[in-house]
Amino acid sequence: MSLPTSTKVITLVENPTGVVTEKTFSLQTTPLEPLKENQVLLKHSVLSNGPAIRSWIDSAYDKARWGDLHVYAGQPVVTEIIAEVIASTSEQWPVGKYVKGLFPWAQYSVQSAEGLQPAILIEGFSPWLSLSVFGFNGLTAYLAIFSELKLKKEDVVCVSSAAGSLGTLFVQLAAKVVGCTVIGIASGPKCEWVKSLGAKDCVDYKAPDFDARLSAALPGGCDVFFDNVGGAVLDAMIKHVKFYGRISVCGALSTYNHEPTVLQNWVEVVLARLNIKGEVTYQSALTTGYMVTDHFDKLPQAIEHLTQLVKDGTLQADAEEIVEAPIEDVAKLWISVFNNGPKGKFLTKLV
């Protein structure tokens, strides 16, 4: 088989400040450099459609805070990808191996062998678990619950974006493994599915009586609110966290397009003595896929435990939607995540 000498790659035209469209990106063809020592040529197989990419490409966020994750205009957009090694100068990564890392939206890429992560394959289960249970979302959920929040069985926990890629795993781990009482927040059609994952109840954030429904689902309030959304959902939930309760902020999905947000209930943080903390428990560097985390030493234990939970059926390991598409459609599919996208983990398989 002859090896490719060029690749189609999607780059960022400009760092957006509002709603992202396909014009935000540009499809280009670039040459692939010959392999140097300890490098691999990768054929990209499956791409993660993570909403966090929106913050990595944004013009307004502090680039120093994002570090290597920030994508500048003219650079390739990156995401978590499973790829096959099709050429190698590394003894560690021979041809035919599958790896995972933060790679560009492209058909192929040349990467340093140092820091590559093996794709995690469990016989009898989806081959794409490395991007769901063992991806950003799964490991963030696990580390947040067991290393950061240290949830206890008696905790009442509320989770926003509970039908999303991170929320679905957070719900399952908190409810099925820790034994917490879990209340999800999601759009109406997805709420029954959230309850099937272990949530005691699920509140439709689009309902006109959203606040009243929160009161009914959380009559005594919650001990912990794990927030992936921000905006109006966060504002409403501030009133429903118990005295001395905790709000763990892991995402801000509602703010990515710079819609104005007014927290009318912010004084409740003072009145209820709430503790609010940001969660960035799991990140990757752009260049090699090397994993960096606030709880790096806990990763082997997390992966081992998650593997067992998949094998024994505790975790629903098929909460994935995968669409086959050419590289030309990657940006369009990713944008669809922000338009009431599919539940669970949304993946694109390149064809």
TrEMBL record:
GO molecular function: oxidoreductase activity, acting on the CH-CH group of donors, NAD or NADP as acceptor
InterPro entries, sorted: ADH-like_C, ADH_N_2, GroES-like_sf, MDR_fam, NAD(P)-bd_dom_sf
PANTHER family found in the cross-reference section: ENOYL REDUCTASE (ER) DOMAIN-CONTAINING PROTEIN, PROSTAGLANDIN REDUCTASE
Oxidoreductase N-terminal domain boundaries: 8-117
Native organism: Naematelia encephala
Pfam families per record: ADH_N_2, ADH_zinc_N
Protein name: Enoyl reductase (ER) domain-containing protein
Domain Alcohol dehydrogenase-like C-terminal span(s) in chain numbering: 166-283
Gene3D superfamilies recorded: Medium-chain alcohol dehydrogenases, catalytic domain (3.90.180.10), NAD(P)-binding Rossmann-like Domain (3.40.50.720)
Transmembrane segments: none
